[in-house]
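Data card: per-record layout.
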Amino acid sequence: MFLLATIIILSYLVGSIPNSIIVSKLTRGIDIRDYGSGNAGGTNVMRVLGWKQGLLVIILDALKGVLAVVVVARIHYGSMPFTNATPFDDFTLIQIIAGISAVIGHIWTVFAGFRGGKGIATALGMLLMISTVDMLIAIGVFVVVVSISRYVSLGSIMAAMAVPLTLVVRENIFNVNIPGYNTLLPFVIVLTLLVIFTHRKNVVRLLNGSENKLNFSKKKK
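The structure for this 221-residue chain is written out next.
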């Protein structure tokens, strides 16, 4: 149990690294949460500081999920402290737990007053390591939706919804034998609901037509 607790805490701390705040402080001397949408995420950095800084933050945030799943999870060895009733092997289950902890850390970062981002990039990094095919399809959905609508929030929500939908279609229509499907599906559904929850204000703005569109050609001074 000590090892599992250590993995959860370390993954949370990795996820809590406030890349958007660090980048905005270093490049412009500002707290990104005081500008734009007030969100400490790559999209807001892109709107306020430009696409280069925004892309850097998104990559760094995704790497937090990768780091938790690929590196921190490897601290585990030996038997599980509880009965593993899932179809996943013990290490994959530990990876999932580590990834979720990192996403929680990103959303509620201990290093910035528990005011972080929305967890999209960190969840992306985690899921790319666990469910690669479905995440690549989700990335495609994100790119198409954002390219057409210029709404990053809409693209994020649609991409999140695409993951469980893709799992269902691949398993039940195309008869792909996805390892751990019955456990992976509810897991990604919970993550999708978390993404929608963190975007609840964006949903309201999308519905009333006041959501900001992404403009790659401009940045605030």
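Known properties of this structure: The chain has a mean pLDDT of 91. The chain has one domain: 2-208.

See the next section for split statistics.
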